[in-house]
Amino acid sequence: MGDTIQSVLVNIAIGLVTSLLGGGFVWLGERAKRAREVNRRAEFFGVRPGETCLVVLGGKHDSPGSAHYQDVRAVVELSLLAGELGCDATLESGDFRGGNGDRTEFCVGGPLGANARTAGHLAAHLPGVTVHPYDSARPDSVAIEVDGETFPYDRRNQEYALVAKFLPRESSRPVFLVCGQSAVGNLAAVHFLRREFGRVAKELSSVERFCLVIKVSGIATYEFHRAELERDLSEVAFG
Known about the structure:
CATH superfamily of the largest domain: Chitobiase/beta-hexosaminidase domain 2-like
Oligomer: single chain
Order of helices and strands: HEHEEHEEEEEHEHEH
Mean pLDDT: 89
């Protein structure tokens, strides 16, 4: 009788230990999986936990000193992203001057009167990119052109955003540029890449430097939610 009770107790103890070990391994596996996910996301966006990110926000092209609410929403998403990756974020306006130094810079807004810093980044680092000026009489108004390929602006229907990551030679951390044809494009690009960075990263030869075009369609119905990777132009955009 005593041996039977002892055997039952031993089996129970073994079962408890096995359950605890199994649960511990599952927990460790999930923790390692989450850590890999965070590291991949941080690598794609060019940030390091514990650092401070610089967010540069452009203004409305027709209302200096104010920002479009969808650009503000894009900045909020970037700030949340920074927080998820263990970073702080500071905000500057589009007339910010100077290098980003040891801070990863997220620069949001198009160059056509909205964000002067975007215009400077394009001129200095992406000579293969042209953003055509606004002219309601021309079919290429606000179109993005790269290596002879044109991405037209069809307001409130189908738009594009150029997204580029590069390292200025005077800085130790990269610039992550979001240059949409409108504030809708800016928000769509940020929202899309925050969710789909892993899939996009698999299609790139390198996440250290890239230039992408994000297409936003069905805007009148879906606003910024229907976005997809249209083209990888990394080989031609940087000149």
